[in-house]
Structure formats: structure tokens, C-alpha cells
Specification:
The structure holds 2 protein chains of 2 kinds.
Chain A lengths: L6 H17 L2 H9 L8 H9 L18 H13 L6 H15 L2 H12 L5 E4 L14 E4 L4 E11 L6 E7 L10 E7 L5 E7 L5 E12 L4 E2 L6 H36 L1 E2 L2 E2 L4 H29 L5 H26 L11 H13 L4 H11 L3
Chain B lengths: L1 H17 L26 H13 L17 H13 L9 H13 L2 H12 L5 E4 L15 E4 L3 E8 L10 E7 L10 E7 L5 E8 L2 E16 L3 E2 L5 H17 L14 H8 L2 E2 L2 E2 L2 H29 L11 H20 L13 H13 L9 H12 L5
Parallel strand pairs in B: 1-4
Antiparallel strand pairs in B: 2-3, 3-7, 4-5, 5-8, 6-7, 9-10
Helix pairs in contact in B: 1-3, 4-5, 4-6, 7-9, 8-9, 9-10
The chains are: A alpha+beta, B alpha+beta.
């Protein structure tokens, strides 16, 4: 698959860019943040995006999806990233819906996926338990009861956990934390008894939640995929989500970079535009290089999913690591180059740094993915 | 497209009949490259056969006009030829600065007489060329060159010095930038001259690098007489030609696949790390080195993908993209990082200069590590590349 955008893809990009610029510019994120919006994103906006077909871009037509590819979803995600648009794309489409798509049973898929495509249902994946992304470091227990199972444990950094209608909870039915074998995924409704969800307000103005499970009882039919073999579902879900976040973060990074270049051309000190200073020219050129490399690998990773290539896991780690590192570089250089106003809340560039940081740590940063890449590559 | 298919069939048939068996094996070292020239000695007669046959077909310079010894092929046909050569693992019949750099410039700026005089000899590998550009005082600031060519009526008298002249000690002729007007602004006083390296007054001195011997030389000119007919283009109009040639040079370097080749003497970097640093249940035992190896391999993959994207965007009519301006910069810096990592991994086994106690691949790694320091300097320094990106791609003001 060519890495050059087709005419249809360019059209999608232009449409998406126009839409988010009009309906969810950066100041919309400010509004949500400053008004302490209880949801953290606009449900109306999500409905509108669903009507455009975006929520279901990658879902099969039988669920009301467009049955398009990640190449297309990546374009939409990138444009959302450019305006820091707060959406449940990561939680609901990339994580939750993918888990059901890859391993849900007929009922789970039928009940939930069509509603996701319509923008009517929010999902969340409750996975992380410590301060770092470590998919197999799960201690949350799934113990057999006489009627089904009960789930006990604590989850952290659950994107959109506080507004999710259904949570996909990763628990352990066998083995020890750190082991790949023994994980099981369960679909848990938000009103389940024993489930306590506490919203956490994050530095990027978006939200996550702490999820506590105190003996939450579930039926065997709540299982997503096979008991004890949850990693077989989790791995490809996390790959797709990592690539999706990389696409969104690429947009955030590219926008921050472009704003910085514009600033270098207009900000004057000592009688000249600061962009004439060679030190800044060189740092700008270095950023350009990293953004281009990031773009290339994200484009390839998105297409690898669509082509069902065996190198999706490796590309997921390369893309996520590269974009995480580039987001870190550009986010910090941007604030520095904006000077004093760069550290003010009034100037928008700081919001890009904050978002870059959260995106970097969502589903594994550069260090995590370099180690994973090494393992996948046999060293 | 039918024409291409039958052309391909003809090419494949001709190659089958005319490419000698020993020419279908990859070269085991750079020493086996056929640069042609008057001094070339053919130990293997098949090497000469291969050159002669390809030259007779015009296929050493496939897209050049036939009347100058070229193949007269279209770009598409040339790609088919390259493809078929690759399929049989044929080694290049001729490598030459005349082919990659001087030829295209003569085709664009040369007189009919100059084209007839020089191009056929390039295609047949009879004359080997070297490039007289940089001087001790004119590197990044090439236009500041000082080698003088005084107008003496029917000839120019050349005095001065060039440096970094690759293979000057083997070359038959030189294409040389000279100053023909010392009063004009520096870019407007430069001319492009061709002359015989056997001319009285020309002397050559090889340059040793920190990595050992190199193909680079210093070239000295003392009262060298150059006939006026050897001026290419107009007098004082040489800078335009020089820049065009540099573009061809950069494309040539870019096509060499920098930073993507195997390390000194085979074995991937991760294998070397396991062997020289240690292995723990299939993992490199040092987690810092493991992280750095992963980073390097990721860098390679991102770079290769960017090169590919650039080609595909160009093919889709969306190019030349901005990304291509970072190829030389990124490729060479990545290559340097590769060797720093390799030398770190090999430890004291990468500190040998020659002789006992070191494997050939270890000695090669050390030499290549040292040689790689030149990559970010030659062909336009990394700092110059950053300036170019800042100015031409990002539009940052002067």
C-alpha cells in the first residue's frame, strides 16, 4: 500500500480538518477544562462525529460501520490531534470496540458495536494497575463463584472510565502478575455492584478514572474471548490502539511544530525575527527531521493493520516509541522557543506540551516500546 | 507497455548470452570495482569483456544519446535494464565520475565538439575522471575558491591547489573549478575547465585519513597550460554548472543507501551485542545497550520508510517532498551512531589498529568507525544541511 495519500484520503483529511477547526478548536478544550465539564468531552460533538461516520470508520458494515481502514481512521485521528479535540476515540473505538471486535461473542458484538458506531455508547479498557504501562502486570483477581466469577482489584489511568457505559476489565484467572498466561477479559456494565469509579482530572484537561472492583460479580457470558488466554486478545488490541494514539499524537506534534515555525518568523527581538538566529534554525531543522520520520512510520503502521501484515506488533512499537520521543522533543522545544509567553496558560502552546506528555505515557512510552521491540526482534 | 515487455525480453536474452559468469557474482570488496581509465589493468579478461560488450550496446550510460556512445534508452527502459541486471546479480560494468557527474553536465552545457571528444571515451571506460572542487581554503564556502586560470590568449594558465580529489592518483583527466575573474563577486568569477592530468605542472599527493589510507588526494597545479577549447559553458559562468553537478553528486551519494548497509564484516548489531557484551535468556544482558540497539534499528526502519514515502509521493505526483532534503543529514548521522554503538559493543576488540589479536571484522569495524566521521562532513556538512532545511523547507528568514 502506497504511503502517499490517495485523492479520497486527501479529501477526508481536508473535510476532517475543516470540521475539527470549526467544531472543536483548541479553545473548546479550554472551555471543557475551565467549566469543569463532568464528562470531559462533548457528547454532542461525538454524536456529530458518529453521524459523519467517524466512530465506525473501521467497524464492519453489519454494525453500521464504514468498513474502511486504519489508513482512514488515522487521518481523522491526526486532525483531531491537531486541535487537541477531546473525544472518546482512544477509549471507545481503539480499545473497547477492538476488544469486542476481535473476541466478543455474538451478543456482545451485536449489543455494543452498533451503538458505538452511532456514538451512543462509551467504552473503556481497565488495564493498568501501577504507574507504568505493563499489560501483563495484572493482579486484579477473577475468582470462580458458584454462579459465575467475581472480580477484585484496582485499576488506574482508565481513559473515560468515569463515563463508560461498559468497561472491558483485564483480570487474572490464573498465574502470577507479570505472566502472559492466565489473563481474562470481562465486559462489565457501569452500574455493576461493587464497582467504584472515581474520575481523575489529568494535566492535559482530559480525564481518566480510578476503577475499584470490590467483588464485582459477573456471569460467564461477560467473558470476552477465552478464559486464561486474554493476552491473545489484549496484544492485538493494544497494537491497534498504540498505532491509533501515535496517529493522533502525530497531529498534535505537527501542529505544535508548525506553530513554532510561524512564531520564529513573526517574533522580533533585537530588530530581527528570531528565526534568523542559526541556533534556532538548526533546532527547527532537527524537529522537522523527526516529524517527517514519525509521519512515515505512522503511515506504514496504519497500513500494516489494513493489510493484516505480520509486522504489525513491531511497527506498533516503533511508531509509538518514535512519536512519543518526537512529541517530547517538539513539545519542549515549542515552549522554549515561544519564550516567556510559552509558559503562560493564556498561550495555547503549553496545552500541546501537556497533551504530548499524557499521550507519551498512554499505552507505553519510548523506553517501554524499545524494550518490547527488542523482545519481538529476538534480542 | 507492450514495447517494454518485449524490450525486457530482449534485454534478458542479451544478458544471458553476454554477461560472463564471473561478472554474475557480487564483488567481495570495493577493490574489484571497475573504474576504467588508461592505467586499468585487467587481471580477469571477463571483466574487460563485460565492459566492452556493455559499452558497445551503449548500456554503461543507458539514457545518454546514442551518438555519444549512450544507449538512447528512456528512463523506463533504463529501469528495466537495471532490473534485469539485478536479477542476474550482475556487477556494474563500469563505475565512473564521468558517468554520474561530468557526463550529465556536458550533455547540458557542453559544445558539440566537447561532447564528441569526451563522452564516448567515458562510455567505453577509456578515460577516468576526477573532480577538482574543494580547496584548503574553500570547503563549505566552495565559491571562495582561489585556483587561478589566467587568460593567455589561446590557453589558460592554471595555478593553485585542490584537496579531497578522489582517485586523482588514478585519474586521466580532471574537471576543475577555477577563478577566471578576481575582481567580480566570488560567484561570478568562476569557470569550469577540463584538462589532462598528464599535463606538465600537475602533481598529486595522496591523503591519509585517521582511518588509514583513502582515495582522497591533494592536487597541485603549477603553470598548467589548458587549451581554451576545454572551457565548458561560458567564461565566468562556471558556478551554475558547478551547482548542477553537485546536485548529481548528491543524488549519487543518496543512491548509495547510506546508513543502511551491513556493519563491518557481517553479523547484525544485536548479534554482536549478544556475543561481545553478553546474553541473558536470549536478551542482550546490558539493558542500556539493548535500548540503544533497539533505538538504532528503529531509526533505520523509520529512515527506510521515509525514503520509500518520498519515492511514492513523487510517483503520485506529490513530490519532490520536503522530507528528501533530510536524507543526507539523517543517513550520515545515523551511520555515525551505528559505528559508535558497534565500537562500544566490541569494546577493546575495536581498539586494534592492525595485526595479531584482532579478527578482520573487528579491525574493519574500527577503520569504518573512523572513516564514518567524514560522512557528516563530505558532500555538504550536516550543519550546511540544517541551514538548507531551515531556509528552503521551513522558509526561516536570513
Amino acid at each position: 500500500m502506497s504511503l502517499a495519500l490517495t485523492e479520497e484520503q486527501e479529501l477526508l483529511r481536508n473535510t476532517a480538518r475543516e470540521f475539527v477547526t470549526e467544531h472543536s478548536p483548541v479553545k473548546e478544550l479550554r472551555r471543557l477544562r475551565d467549566s469543569n465539564d463532568p464528562v470531559g468531552f462533548s457528547r454532542d460533538l461525538w454524536k456529530q462525529m458518529a453521524e459523519l461516520g467517524w466512530a465506525g470508520i473501521t467497524l464492519p458494515e453489519e454494525f453500521g460501520g464504514a468498513d474502511l481502514g486504519y489508513a482512514e481512521l488515522g487521518i481523522v485521528l491526526e486532525e483531531c490531534g491537531r486541535t487537541l479535540a477531546a473525544t472518546p476515540f482512544v477509549s471507545t473505538v481503539l480499545l473497547g470496540a477492538n476488544a469486542l471486535l476481535l473476541a466478543g461473542n455474538g451478543t456482545q458484538q451485536k449489543d455494543v458495536l452498533a451503538a458505538v458506531a452511532k456514538g451512543e455508547v462509551i467504552l473503556a479498557l481497565a488495564l493498568q494497575e501501577g504507574a507504568h504501562h505493563a499489560p501483563y502486570a495484572v493482579a486484579t483477581k477473577a475468582e470462580a463463584t458458584k454462579d459465575g466469577l467475581k472480580l477484585t482489584g484496582k485499576k488506574t489511568f482508565v481513559q473515560d472510565g468515569h463515563v463508560a457505559d461498559q468497561l472491558v476489565v483485564v483480570a487474572r484467572s490464573a498465574g502470577k502478575p507479570g505472566e502472559r498466561d492466565g489473563l481474562s477479559l470481562f465486559l462489565v456494565p457501569k452500574n455493576a455492584r461493587g464497582l467504584k469509579v472515581t474520575r481523575t482530572v489529568m494535566v492535559d484537561g482530559r480525564n481518566s478514572a480510578l476503577v475499584e472492583l470490590d467483588g464485582v460479580e459477573v456471569d460467564k457470558s461477560a467473558l470476552v474471548g477465552h478464559a486464561g488466554r486474554g493476552a491473545d486478545v489484549l496484544d492485538p488490541v493494544l497494537d491497534r490502539a498504540a498505532i491509533g494514539i501515535a496517529a493522533e499524537t502525530l497531529g498534535t506534534t505537527a501542529e505544535a511544530f508548525e506553530r513554532t515555525i510561524a512564531y520564529l518568523k513573526t517574533r522580533k527581538q533585537f530588530g530581527v525575527a528570531i528565526g534568523t538566529f542559526q541556533a534556532l534554525k538548526h533546532r527547527a531543522a532537527e524537529m522537522f527531521t523527526q516529524v517527517e520520520l514519525s509521519r512515515s512510520i505512522v503511515l506504514d503502521a496504519l497500513r500494516a493493520i489494513d493489510e493484516k501484515r505480520p509486522d504489525v506488533p513491531v511497527l506498533a512499537s516503533i511508531a509509538k516509541a518514535r512519536v512519543s520521543d518526537t512529541a517530547f522533543l517538539v513539545g519542549n522545544e515549542a515552549v522554549q522557543m515561544f519564550g516567556g509567553i510559552g509558559v503562560t496558560d493564556e498561550e495555547e502552546i503549553g496545552l500541546f506540551l501537556k497533551r504530548a506528555r499524557v499521550a507519551e505515557l498512554t499505552l507505553g512510552d519510548g523506553a517501554y516500546h524499545r524494550a518490547r521491540f527488542a523482545t519481538l526482534s529476538g534480542f | 507497455m507492450e514495447n517494454l515487455d518485449s524490450f525486457r525480453a530482449d534485454v534478458a536474452k542479451w544478458l544471458e548470452q553476454n554477461c560472463p559468469p564471473s561478472m554474475r557474482k557480487p564483488m567481495t570488496s570495493e577493490d574489484e570495482t571497475n573504474w576504467g581509465g588508461k592505467r586499468k589493468k585487467y587481471a580477469n579478461p571477463e571483466e574487460k569483456q563485460w565492459l566492452d560488450r556493455m559499452a558497445a550496446k551503449g548500456w554503461t550510460c543507458p539514457t545518454w544519446p546514442k551518438q555519444y556512445g549512450g544507449g538512447g534508452l528512456s528512463n523506463a527502459e533504463a529501469r528495466v535494464l537495471a532490473d534485469e541486471l539485478r536479477k542476474i546479480h550482475a556487477r556494474p560494468a563500469l563505475i565512473s565520475f564521468g558517468i554520474t557527474m561530468l557526463g550529465p553536465v556536458l550533455l547540458e552545457y557542453g559544445t558539440e565538439e566537447q561532447k564528441k571528444e569526451h563522452l564516448p571515451k567515458i562510455t567505453r571506460g577509456e578515460i577516468r575522471w576526477c573532480q577538482g572542487y574543494s580547496e584548503p581554503g574553500a570547503g563549505s564556502d566552495l565559491a571562495g575558491l582561489q585556483t587561478r586560470a589566467e587568460d593567455k590568449g589561446d590557453h589558460y594558465l592554471v595555478n593553485g591547489q585542490k584537496i579531497w580529489t578522489s582517485y586523482a592518483n588514478y585519474a586521466d583527466w580532471i574537471f576543475c573549478l577555477v577563478r577566471t575573474d578576481t575582481n567580480a563577486p566570488k560567484h561570478d568569477g568562476i569557470s569550469f575547465l577540463l584538462f589532462d592530468m598528464e599535463s606538465p605542472g600537475v602533481s598529486v599527493s595522496p591523503i591519509k585519513l585517521i582511518s588509514g589510507s583513502s582515495p582522497f588526494c591533494q592536487t597541485f597545479f603549477q603553470d598548467v597550460k589548458v587549451p581554451k577549447k576545454n572551457l565548458v559553458g561560458v567564461k565566468n559562468g562556471g558556478w551554475t554548472i558547478a551547482k548542477k553537478l553537485l546536485q548529481h553528486e548528491r543524488e549519487m551519494i543518496g543512491g548509495m543507501g547510506f546508513g543502511l548497509g551491513a556493519s563491518g564484516g557481517g553479523g547484525s548489531i544485536d548479534q554482536m551485542a549478544k556475543e561481545y557484551v553478553g546474553e541473558d535468556n536470549g536478551r542482550i544482558s546490558d539493558s542500556v545497550i539493548r535500548d540503544q540497539v533497539a533505538q538504532h534499528q528503529m531509526d533505520q526502519r523509520c529512515f527506510m520508510t521515509t525514503v520509500r514515502r518520498s519515492m511514492e509521493e513523487a510517483k503520485a505526483g506529490q513530490g519532490p517532498g520536503a522530507a528528501s532534503s533530510m536524507f543526507k543529514l539523517y543517513g550520515t548521522e545515523m551511520n555515525k551512531r551505528r559505528y559508535e554503538l558497534l565500537v562500544k559493543i566490541l569494546g577493546s576488540q575495536a581498539l586494534g589498529w592492525e595485526g595479531a589479536g584482532f579478527k578482520p571484522r573487528e579491525l574493519a569495524a574500527t577503520r569504518e568507525w573512523l572513516r564514518s566521521k567524514g560522512n557528516s562532513i563530505e558532500g555538504g556538512t550536516s550543519e550546511v544541511q540544517l541551514n538548507i532545511i531551515a531556509k528552503r523547507v521551513l522558509g526561516l528568514p536570513d
